[in-house]
Amino acid sequence: MPERTVVIASRTGLHARPAKLFVQAAAAQGVPVRIRLGAGRSVPADSMLAVMALGAEHGAEVVLEAEGPGADAALDSLAGLLSRDLDAEEAPDA
Amino acid sequence: MAETAPLPLDPRAVRLTASAADRDDAILQCGRALMEVGAVESPYLDAMLERERAVSTYMGEGVAIPHGTLKAKEVVRHDALCVLRFPDGVDWDGERVTVCVGIAARGDGHLRLLSALARILMDPERARALREAEEVAEVLRLLEPIEEEE
Where does the PTS EIIA type-2 domain lie (chain B) (predicted)? Predict the structure, then answer.
């Protein structure tokens, strides 16, 4: 199954805001994507609760996996998102 | 990854029968509950509203988790939660919220609290019990962290 290993770049980890952006992006893919932390079980990447429950900290390595048509493109897109500091993109006066 | 430390929930910060005019009112009530237990200073309330406008803190299972922005950490005195039940529901950008868990955390405390809370809510029975809890002691019991079974 296609996989991508990516290090969480957001300063505060994959928590509220970065998690929400990631979950929304995952849900918008045409293919189901799963995420796991270390040797843990994989969980649906489009579930806010499941992603938050991972508790992935800044610098943690997570693995994304998906199968089927479009899987590679979906994984590239989501891995790209996680490798950016999503907290830094918070609008100053948002 | 296992987090079994108790969540910092003061019984005085649990309200079983709150009611709010709208989402912002509910958030401000959470902020005031956190202030009353000495966890945050007043600028934290605006930071909670700011955070909510940037991205909804609706988490699923009828639960929202309002908290401040990163910048507001300096007005957090200690990590704390509050739990406000809104039996009549609050419209939260189209979602119906009946439980607000307000969060104040310094440093990396947010992640630990959010992760522990998410694990609790992923158990549908526990989430339902939290929405329907009628005693403060029950809320405290339901928010005891779940031990990792792995």
Answer: 7-146
